[in-house]
Specification:
Distance between the termini: 50 Å
Number of helices: 14
Radius of gyration: 24 Å
Largest sheet: 11 strands, mixed
């Protein structure tokens, strides 16, 4: 075996400590697979005295994280600090400028600054790796970038946020309301104290924009992702979906065609026959559809110290072997700059839930608004009165342009008979 691959780690939270434990536990196996040992030589974090359950005395400690690239005698800088900007971005820029390989689990930084960092890595002839930034331990980045490299990818989509999936799965099994299940998820550590990035779809959008670029050979375009979350999903939506033969999942979906790049994160009704309907708990799953390979399905733990550390060390093994190419599967100079695809003429079926006054003529008003907008109704269900006296009306539409549903909801939103905002969820095709 040759000289060890020397690694400097910035950030010693659950993932950073998990990486050290993994290298300690599987070090011999990893060395045989990598062709040489992988050794941590330097670390940095905010609190030097904190007990992290691993022995840090054997590593050099660097007080300033941004100085790690210059001060540590390392071949690779591993960033596990987090955050789109600030310390993480400064460290990434410094490491690549110093000609050091860079590995990160930071989805936000890659979504916002990945193109800049890829250009710097390619210019310096070093690796930029971020397998752990998307779907935890699932090797979906490698699967798309390498395993499916011979294919034109038609569509990539999936369940990409474990917090949302845990909440929706619990609402299915327990029949609880969103707020109660969110509180349970926070108590069990599946949701942050401030869960906005997760439940509002931002975390999934970061991951989707990364996968879109790799899948379609386009410049990352996080700002073009249409983002919706699950805050307004109620128990009645879960029950109605089940009665219709669906489950509700927060789905990120991307497609590229002649009109541009379509990227959306939003709650979808997923048919029971589709594998995504059976992804439960905090699990993540990603589907990619290639023109020769067909449908590929990746499923596994989307977060956690073990799965994320596994993905990080897989990147380190690639670097130890000298196996690394363009971060986005092709050089940044040939990545296409795609405009966002218009959605108005995008065709599909929809689920719409309205909260309305319990009055004679309200259903006729709803039907008229749908008719005038050109929306064909497949099914309409009215449920019993809520505590405030209003009722829920659920509608499933036939396939049609999205602009028609948007027009109908705009008309209805102005009605005094609407007692709450409408909920519009798309129905995923099989």
């Amino acid at each position: 075996m040759t000289e060890p691959l020397r690694v400097a780690i910035a950030g010693l939270g659950t993932v950073g400590a998990g990486v050290i434990r993994l290298l300690d536990t599987n070090g011999d196996l990893i060395a045989r697979r990598a062709g040489r040992p992988i050794e941590v030589v330097a670390v940095t974090a905010r609190d030097r005295s904190k007990d992290r359950g691993v022995d840090l005395s054997r590593f050099d400690w660097v007080d300033d994280p941004t100085a790690l690239a210059a001060e540590a005698d390392a071949d690779v800088v591993l960033e596990l600090v987090g955050g789109a900007d600030g310390t993480a971005l400064a460290l990434a820029r410094a490491a690549l400028k110093a000609g050091k390989n860079f590995v990160t689990a930071n989805k936000a930084m890659i979504a916002h600054h990945g193109l800049e960092l890829a250009q710097a890595a390619e210019g310096a002839g070093v690796a930029l790796k971020f397998e752990a930034a998307v779907a935890g331990g699932i090797p979906v980045v490698k699967g798309l970038r390498e395993g499916a490299a011979a294919n034109a990818i038609d569509r990539v989509y999936g369940v990409m946020n474990g917090t949302c999936n845990f909440i929706l799965s619990k609402m299915e099994s327990q029949g609880g309301d969103f707020a109660d299940v969110l509180a349970e998820a926070q108590a069990k550590g599946f949701a942050e104290a401030d869960p906005g990035f997760d439940i509002d779809g931002v975390d999934a959008a970061h991951k989707l924009s990364i996968l879109s670029s790799i899948a379609f050979g386009t410049e990352p375009a996080f700002g073009d992702v249409a983002i919706g979350g699950i805050r307004n999903v109620v128990a009645a939506d879960i029950a109605e979906a089940a009665a219709l033969g669906y489950r509700i999942r927060l789905v990120g979906i991307a497609e590229a065609d002649g009109e541009g790049l379509f990227q959306r994160v939003h709650p979808y009704l997923v048919p029971m026959a589709h594998p995504l309907a059976h992804v439960s708990g905090s699990t993540n799953a990603v589907v990619a559809e290639g023109n020769f390979v067909g449908r590929l399905f990746f499923e596994g733990a989307g977060a956690g110290d073990g799965p994320t550390a596994s993905a990080v060390v897989a990147d380190l093994i690639d670097i130890a072997r000298g196996e690394f190419g363009p971060p986005y599967a092709m050089p940044v100079t040939v990545l296409a700059k795609q405009p966002p695809a218009p959605t108005g003429e995008r065709r599909g079926r929809a689920y719409v839930r309205l909260t309305v006054a319990d009055k004679v003529g309200v259903l006729a008003e709803i039907a008229a608004a749908m008719r005038d907008a050109g929306v064909s109704i497949e099914a309409l269900m009215q449920r019993g009165a809520l505590a405030d006296g209003s009722v829920l009306v659920a509608i499933v539409t036939h396939e049609g342009p999205e602009r028609c549903v948007a027009q109908a909801l705009e008309t209805l939103s102005a009605s005094s008979n609407m007692t709450g905002p409408p909920m519009w969820m798309h129905i995923l095709g099989e």
